[in-house]
């Protein structure tokens, strides 16, 4: 009885550990079985790299289609160090992210801007609280890799090209300078083009409810990314709808109408919000006869952008019988020609539509290149001669891409300086040349030290994003856009400021069609070709 009481109270007998140890020995598997379990575990772990290797080998072309363009687009970001590249990146994306994150913008303005990209950048900023410049430095290469991967996927699944040929077409596109120009600062275009490319295979095969829903979602995302890519996405859906109507295919007509309805509703909502708040209508007033500038920015830039690919495009045009690519190309060419109409034309400058032609034209060029490489007609002399040029073409393509990516704007290749207002002379720049980036940041710090209740810094659009990114939120700033600095002085006086500061280049070295500083501004502090000015009445 005493023993039972002791056990109940937790008093273990002296020999109880022998019983516990024996029980443990009884429950342990035999020595051979234990070794087999351990060896099985080691074998399973050793198979993990092998399994990953199989996955990588199976998807190596798709991985290359993403990683190689990502690496290409990362090079200029590395060259400029901690600073951004791209005009829109620093002039609009960074300040808009800061404003929207602070709740300074109404929902109508947000809707009218096609806000999908900012729905990515703002949560990243709120979670990390890093300078938005770094968010877009990371976002640019990822968007570029994603867009070229989506292009590879379309070529592979939509056009049914072999994997090597599909990768070749994707890499040709990623190295062409027009595509690189898109990646420079048109992040919203890249995002929208990615969704369009993902939707193209579904336009050929959309009959199941799941594919219809996915196609409708991709169209909505393309519209929410950018108004121009939204137009292209809706034109592709609309052309399919009209084709079904002309063929009297009622079921297909109603199904396509239903697929495009959400995207169409969102597009007109964005257009209405943009018109109501921003005042951006669909048309603008043009001269009765085409001017030299309108001809240059439309037909001239179109020929300049695709001159090197024109022979390959003509050769490969018939090799790609894709209805949607043809619709895309014809629509963009039609919009470009509208810039030559008298009195009224589209408000969007025609060179933007020339840029959006890049994807289909590069696909046609890749098809022409593949056709030329596989021709077996030695009796035709030009075929053999053209095939000898293929390695030269590949070398020129790579070298020209490297020069466009790496050379600074001041020493850009001559060909890239033909349209400086439409095409950056180098990817290693933003609103200011790479050589001025460090000096600009130092001058902003100098301006911040001079700030007071009655002092304001007026900024051109090229400097405004820099000031927002690198000055405190309490700094007094006035953005006078693209106009004359004296307009900024008037705005400062009307707001009650008595001291006006300006950061610009020294006389004779100014960029953005303003080589000189107006009278009344005196240089206070100079670094390189930039200076901090004070306005003196």
Number of strands: 7
Helical content class? 55-70%
* N-to-C span: 109 Å
Any low-confidence stretches, pLDDT <50, length ≥5?
1-26
In N-to-C order, the SSE pattern is HHHHHHHHHHHHHHEHHHEHHHHEHEHEEE
Compute the number of helices: 23
Using the CA coordinates, give the radius of gyration.
Answer: 31 Å
Notes on the structure:
By secondary structure, the protein is α/β, with parallel strands linked by helices. Among the domains are: 55 residues, no CATH class; 102 residues. It has 23 helices and 7 strands. Strands 4-3-5-7-6 form a 5-stranded mixed sheet, sandwiched between helices. The longest helix is centred in the middle third of the chain and has 29 residues. The N terminus is likely disordered.
Strands, helices and their partners?
Layout: H1 2-8, H2 16-27, H3 31-58, H4 60-79, H5 87-101, H6 107-112, H7 118-128, H8 132-158, H9 163-175, H10 177-185, H11 187-204, H12 209-225, H13 227-246, H14 250-278, E1 283-285, H15 292-306, H16 310-316, H17 323-337, E2 344-346, H18 350-356, H19 358-373, H20 381-406, H21 437-449, E3 455-459, H22 461-470, E4 477-479, H23 485-494, E5 499-505, E6 521-527, E7 530-535
Parallel strand pairs: 3-4, 3-5
Antiparallel strand pairs: 1-2, 5-7, 6-7
Give me some keywords for this one.
single chain, 537 residues, alpha/beta, 5-stranded mixed sheet, two-stranded antiparallel ribbon, 23 helices, 7 strands, globular, disordered N terminus
Task: Write a short abstract of this structure.
This protein is of the alpha/beta class and 537 residues long. Helices cover 65% and strands 6% of the residues.
């Amino acid at each position: 009885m005493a023993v039972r009481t002791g056990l109940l109270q937790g008093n273990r007998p002296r020999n109880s550990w022998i019983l516990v140890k024996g029980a443990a020995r009884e429950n342990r598997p035999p020595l051979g079985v234990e070794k087999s379990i351990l060896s099985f575990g080691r074998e399973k772990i050793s198979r993990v790299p092998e399994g990953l290797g199989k996955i990588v080998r199976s998807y190596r072309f798709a991985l290359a289609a993403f990683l190689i363009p990502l690496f290409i687009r990362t090079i200029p970001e590395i060259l400029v160090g901690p600073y951004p590249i791209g005009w829109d990146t620093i002039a609009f994306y960074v300040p808009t992210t800061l404003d929207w994150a602070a709740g300074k913008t109404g929902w109508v303005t947000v809707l009218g801007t096609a806000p999908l990209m900012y729905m990515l950048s703002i949560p990243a900023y709120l979670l990390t609280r890093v300078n938005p410049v770094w968010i877009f430095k990371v976002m640019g290469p990822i968007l570029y890799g994603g867009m070229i991967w989506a292009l590879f996927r379309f070529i592979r699944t939509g056009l049914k090209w072999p994997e090597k040929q599909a990768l070749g077409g994707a890499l040709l596109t990623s190295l062409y300078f027009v595509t690189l120009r898109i990646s420079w600062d048109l992040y919203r275009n890249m995002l929208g083009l990615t969704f369009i490319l993902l939707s193209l295979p579904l336009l050929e095969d959309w009959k199941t409810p799941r594919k219809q829903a996915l196609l409708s979602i991709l169209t909505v995302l393309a519209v929410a990314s950018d108004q121009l890519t939204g137009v292209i996405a809706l034109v592709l859906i609309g052309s399919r709808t009209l084709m079904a109507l002309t063929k009297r295919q009622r079921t297909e007509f109603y199904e396509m109408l239903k697929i495009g309805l959400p995207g169409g509703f969102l597009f007109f909502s964005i257009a209405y919000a943009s018109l109501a708040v921003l005042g951006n209508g669909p048309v603008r007033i043009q001269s009765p006869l085409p001017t030299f500038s309108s001809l240059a920015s439309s037909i001239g830039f179109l020929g300049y952008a695709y001159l090197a690919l024109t022979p390959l495009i003509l050769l490969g045009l018939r090799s790609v019988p894709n209805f949607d690519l043809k619709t895309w190309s014809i629509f963009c060419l039609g919009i470009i020609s509208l810039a030559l109409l008298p009195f009224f034309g589209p408000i969007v400058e025609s060179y933007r539509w020339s840029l959006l032609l890049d994807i289909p034209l590069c696909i046609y060029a890749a098809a022409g290149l593949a056709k030329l490489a596989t021709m077996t007609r030695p009796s035709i002399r030009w075929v053999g001669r053209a095939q000898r040029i293929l390695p030269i073409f590949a070398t020129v393509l790579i070298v020209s891409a490297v020069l466009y990516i790496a050379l600074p704007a001041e020493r850009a290749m001559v060909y890239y300086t033909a349209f400086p207002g439409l095409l950056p002379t180098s990817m290693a720049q933003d609103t200011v040349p790479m050589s001025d980036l460090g000096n600009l940041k130092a001058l902003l710090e100098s301006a911040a030290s001079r700030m007071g209740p009655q002092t304001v810094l007026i900024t051109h659009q090229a400097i405004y994003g820099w000031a927002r990114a690198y000055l405190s939120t309490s700094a007094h700033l006035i953005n006078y856009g693209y106009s004359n600095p004296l307009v900024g002085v008037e705005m400062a006086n009307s707001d009650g400021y008595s001291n006006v500061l300006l950061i610009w280049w020294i006389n004779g070295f100014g960029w953005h069609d303003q080589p000189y500083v107006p009278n009344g501004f005196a240089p206070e502090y100079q670094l390189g070709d930039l200076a901090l000015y004070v306005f003196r009445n």
